[in-house]
Amino acid sequence: MQVTQHADADIYAGLAMLLRYPEAGWVGALPELRAALPAPTRAALSPLLAWLANGADLIALQEQYVETFDSRPAHSLHLFEHIHGQSRDRGQAMVDLREEYLSHGLAPDPAELPDYIPMFLEFLAQIPPADARRLLGDAVHVIARLGDKLAAVQSPYACVFAILRGMTDVQPEPLPDVPEGDLDERPVLFGPQAGGPGAMLQQMNGQTAQVHFHATDPRRATPQSGQ
Q1: What gap in Å lies between CA 93 and CA 182, rounded to an integer?
Q2: Reduced to 3 DSSP states, what percent helix, strand and coil does the chain have, rounded to the nearest 5?
Q3: Does the keyword Electron transport apply (predicted)?
Q4: pTM
């Protein structure tokens, strides 16, 4: 499939990468990522880019990521979890979003949840701009809420959601709280190497790429020695 290039495609693709679990490959490619982003976006991302570039070590970055997104259901990177919790309505919302992917010729791995935000942003980077704006406008209510929660705990990731909030004219509306018991307490499963950093950076440089949606969390793929 040919990548649909539009003014915001590089931004969506870059933000998708930055919301992944920190891996040596893409963290090491941060200079290339920075160069592919528009200057205003680089400036807005400076808290996160500096934190990633100046982190004590990769393990510390990974631990902070897990603490931010995996250990706190209120910070889940799954859109519909913030609206429906684990109710039946969430399942129908997943079906509808998957159909949206399929309608643009993208087939997500059925083992992965289609509302995973990095996957969603990769999708926006590869569809016509009018469709991307429409879908971002639909999601901005959750995105704004999650960004506010991250800002309240001074997370460097908050700037990603602030940028997304500014990429749509839709004004976020308050969302009712989902009871904590309805949020899945299991760690969020995600694919930090979906397409790989090389494929995403190729896309941001205007080259042809394919979307690959992975269900396997590489942190769990290889048994640790001694286990």
Answers
A1: 16
A2: 55, 0, 40
A3: no
A4: 0.73
Distance CA 62, CA 219 (A): 10
| DSSP code for 78 | B
Neighbours of 63 (CB within 10 A): 13
Q: Which amino acid is at 222?
A: T
pLDDT in tens, 100-152: 878 888 777 676 777 889 989 998 998 999 999 999 998 899 999 999 999 99
Q: Which two tokens stand for residue 103?
A: 């309608």
**For residue 65, how many other CB atoms are within 10 A of its CB?**
17
Indicate the residue type of 185. E
Q: Write out pLDDT tens, residues 199-212.
A: 444 444 444 343 33
Judged on CB neighbours under 10 Å (0-12, 13-18, 19+), 13 is buried
Q: For residues 177 and 8, what is the distance between their CA atoms, to the nearest angstrom?
A: 31
